[in-house]
Amino acid sequence: ARGADRYNSELVPTAGMFKTDRRLEAGRRGVRVFARPDSQDFYAGDYAELRGVGDREGDIVDTDGRVLGRHRGYWRFTPGQRKGLGIGGGGNGSPWFVLEKDLEGNRLIVSQGEDSALFKSALYASGMNWISGEIPEKPFECAVKIRYRQDDQTARVTPQGDTLRIDFEEPQRAVSPGQYAVLYDGEICLGGGVIDKVV
């Protein structure tokens, strides 16, 4: 219900209601799925077709560019992922993990050992949807989420035309291009956009 009071109740009748209240009302009205658990997942095959990505294979490489194996679509992997790479352990007993995705080259870049390289201090986001209705022109501080179950993270946001640069107060683990960065002012959702690049 963050920012719900900003919606026109005539356009979105349930905007001012909490999810629990919506479920109770749905049950009262006989909607059979009112008690179904929430889902945050998607069926990857349909998603691939939707995005036009398909199952295009590509190389799995280490940070020196050595080819270690092949993947069946980089969209199946996220930074920090260790399972399902299919390239073995690498000989020194330390597992491989996805460091980043090279979208243009259709490659997964992997690393071994400490995953400190996964921590990034800033990102760029575009395609912003300003729910608050106000498009900021000057830098400001707010809370940012880059994944659903994450605690709010303090950051400084700098508008740069159609793009935002978001600098976190503390480095964040496994920031993933293609996911969303969502901005909050307390309980009010200001808006969100797609993460384009991590720095």
Strands in their spatial order, largest beta sheet: 5-8-7-6-9-10
Say how many strands there are: 10
- Largest sheet entry: 6 strands, antiparallel, barrel
The portion of residues assigned to helices is: under 10%
Q: Uncertain regions: pLDDT < 50 for 5+ in a row?
A: 1-5, 41-46
Q: Calculate the terminal CA-CA distance, rounded to whole Å.
A: 32 Å
Notes on the structure:
This protein has 199 residues and is mainly β. Helix content is 9%, strand content 38%. Strands 5-8-7-6-9-10 form a 6-stranded antiparallel barrel. β6 (140-145) and β7 (153-160) form a beta hairpin. The longest helix has 10 residues, at 19-28.
Q: In short, what is this structure?
A:
This protein has two helices and ten strands. It has helices at residues 19-28, 44-51, and strands spanning 58-61, 67-71, 96-102, 107-112, 119-129, 140-145, 153-160, 163-173, 180-185, 188-198. The two termini are 32 Å apart.
Present the secondary structure layout.
Blueprint lengths: L18 H10 L15 H8 L6 E4 L5 E5 L24 E7 L4 E6 L6 E11 L10 E6 L7 E8 L2 E11 L6 E6 L2 E11 L1
Parallel strand pairs: 1-4
Antiparallel strand pairs: 1-2, 3-4, 5-8, 5-10, 6-7, 6-9, 7-8, 9-10
Defining key terms:
single chain; 199 residues; mainly beta; 6-stranded antiparallel beta barrel; 4-stranded mixed β-sheet; 2 helices; 10 strands; globular; disordered N terminus
